[in-house]
């Protein structure tokens, strides 16, 4: 999704605390619920990102695929979509959706209440810091009034375009009007439109918005750019004015391409099915640690 020049316009995360994920490794293994990626836009989007140290990606993957496997064994564990940045610095973001903040709080309290977590946390954190140079945690609220199209089948999406917009204080209305004007152009010209918009409510500077587009492969980005050009051809004076005001409201715009990591994504085997992209290789069962000899 793109706005006219000069400003382009172009879901599923680790818990906001690394502690929650570490604790999940230590929980018992009850029956696993068949938790799938969401089929509609979550009201709240939790995003937890880890910046990787140079050269650490292979070891990071090995370490964190183990975490994902463990999370998949927890009853009612929420799915987490893992995205690896294709542009810019090496980074992996875990996105998870929930219906409310209260729902996430309940899950966190259950995991954080596990006694084994406190004992193992120091060692687990030390190992992860060997691969990670920094983290950031954020929350966004869904803006359905700015989004477009039907919610996609995330099981069939492999690449994402994720744009972050920062808006001057008090200029949120200009952003909203520009986004609605852009969506109306697609509708008027009967062009396919499919993007989700979240307004960041914690973890970002000032008024920040995220716009997500997703595609089965990279060729989808070519089609999206072509449709954006068609949509903005022959603007009316009112539309030009709306986009001019929109551009003046912006203080920062960044667009990155991301690729889905099936190994780091949390989603149990029943949901993964037989799709080669999602299917995991068999894993040997965990062996209980032997008690220490007195």
List keywords for this structure.
23% strand; 8 strands; alpha+beta; 8 helices; 8-stranded antiparallel barrel; disordered N terminus; 294 residues
Provide an overview of this structure.
The protein has about 290 residues and is α+β, with helices and mostly antiparallel strands. Helices cover about 35% and strands about 25% of the residues. Strands 1-3-2-8-5-7-6-4 form an eight-stranded antiparallel beta barrel. The longest helix has 17 residues, at about 170-190. It is globular and about 60 Å long. The model is unreliable at about 1-35 and about 285-290 (pLDDT under 50).
**How are strands sequenced across the largest beta sheet?**
1-3-2-8-5-7-6-4
Q: Let me know the largest β-sheet.
A: 8 strands, antiparallel, barrel
| Fraction of residues in β-strands | 15-25%
What distance separates the N and C termini?
A: 65 Å
Task: Work out the helicity level.
Answer: 25-40%
Query: Shape from CA axes?
Result: globular
Number of strands: 8
Write a brief structural summary.
Helix content is 33%, strand content 23%. By secondary structure, it is an alpha+beta fold.
Write the layout of secondary structure elements.
Layout: H1 18-24, E1 44-52, H2 57-71, E2 81-85, E3 91-98, H3 101-112, H4 115-129, E4 132-142, E5 159-167, H5 172-188, E6 196-202, E7 207-215, H6 219-231, H7 237-249, E8 250-260, H8 269-272
Antiparallel strand pairs: 1-3, 1-4, 2-3, 2-8, 4-6, 5-7, 5-8, 6-7
Helix pairs in contact: 1-4, 5-7
